[in-house]
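If your schedule permits, I should be very grateful for your opinion on a structural question. Please examine both parts with care and let me know of anything in them that strikes you as inconsistent. The record follows directly beneath this note:
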Amino acid sequence: RALQMKQTAHGETHPEVATTLYCLGRLHHTMGDKGAARASWTAALRICQLRLGESHPDTRRVVKALQRMDQ
């Protein structure tokens, strides 16, 4: 629900949407749903790369989360 509200309020590629997706990914990962975590983090990464760039701390945070999944 929070994700839908932010998408409606700010648009689908707003950094706030990426932050919400990142948090959802953490929740899914903690609950053991790695597929949903990867999907959320991948969506967050696309937004971060588009809106913030590769070197932004939020982008790097999502990249690290995805890399940890692959270890």
The chain has a mean pLDDT of 95. The chain is about 80% helix and 0% strand. The CA atoms of residues 2 and 65 lie 21 Å apart. The helical segments are 2-10, 15-30, 34-51, 57-69.
